[in-house]
Amino acid sequence: MKFTMTGSQWVGLGVLLSLLIFAVLGMMFSPFSISQQDLNAVLDSPSAVHWLGTDHFGRSMLARMAHAVGLSFALGVLCVVTSSLLGTALGFGLCGVVKRSIIS
User: Fold this and answer.
1) Residue 50: strand, helix, or coil
2) Which of 32, 69, 71, 101 could be joined to 23 by an S-S link, Cβ 3.0–4.6 Å?
3) Are the C-beta atoms of residues 51 and 26 closer than 8 Å to each other?
4) So which domain of life are we looking at (predicted)?
5) Mean pLDDT, the chain, whole residue set
6) 11 pLDDT exceeds 90?
7) How many structural domains is the chain composed of?
């Protein structure tokens, strides 16, 4: 069976890849920490220094969004791996119980 992707699947893949690239590059190249405060730049609008502006504590919104997207991806992967391991273990356990009940 040949696997082909539809147009909406390509769009979804593009969105996911662009978010992943944003998270990785934003964390690597942002000169600001997610917790670094600049009280002189409270609620600044987007500028050359803070591309997406700052929040009410003067923290860079670009750095905070990049870290948030990265955290979301990491938590998604953690949930998938955990549920896969748990489901596989339970499946093999139930398979053993069923085999023992059939044999005996």
Assistant:
1) coil
2) 69
3) no
4) Bacteria
5) 92
6) yes
7) 1
